[in-house]
Amino acid sequence: MRKCPRSGVSARAVAAGYYVPFMGLTMSQRKAVTKVTAVRYRSARKGAKALILDELCALTGWHRDHARKALRAGLGPWPLSVAYRPRVPV
After folding, report:
1. How far apart are CA 73 and CA 37, in angstroms?
2. C-alpha neighbours within 13 Å on the C-beta side of residue 79
3. Which of 15, 35, 59, 66 is packed most tightly, with the most Cβ within 10 A?
4. At CA 50, angle to CA 68 and CA 19, rounded to 5?
5. Per-residue pLDDT reduced to its tens digit, 19-40
């Protein structure tokens, strides 16, 4: 059985409809989707985060691990609640 050299999926799986090739988004579209989704992801509970990850993976074609890291980095670092003063030299 022949496999596609790029995706590693067999031609029979593609013909039977088990595999749908990813249609792809541009980089700016992926960044916009990630930024919007990151807002929901940050405030969601654990069960909702799993659904958000599944949704983002289906949309962008990313693996779950990469999608999770992109969502965590999407909004930047957490804002500090306390302004820390530098230590006074002794």
Report:
1. 11
2. 1
3. 59
4. 85
5. 555 557 788 888 888 999 999 9
62: containing domain: 23-74
Nearest-angstrom CA–CA distance, 27 and 60? 10
Nearest C-alpha neighbor of 38 from the set 6, 11, 5, 78: 78
Kindly state whether residue 45 falls inside one of the protein's structural domains: yes
Going from the C-alpha of 43 to that of each of 26, 31, 58, 67, 84, the distances in angstroms are 27, 19, 21, 16, 25
Q: Answer yes or no: are the C-beta atoms of 19 and 61 closer than 8 Å.
A: no
Whether 59 is covered by a domain: the verdict is: yes
* Number of domains into which the chain is organized: 1
pLDDT score, position 18: 52
Largest CA distance in the chain: 74
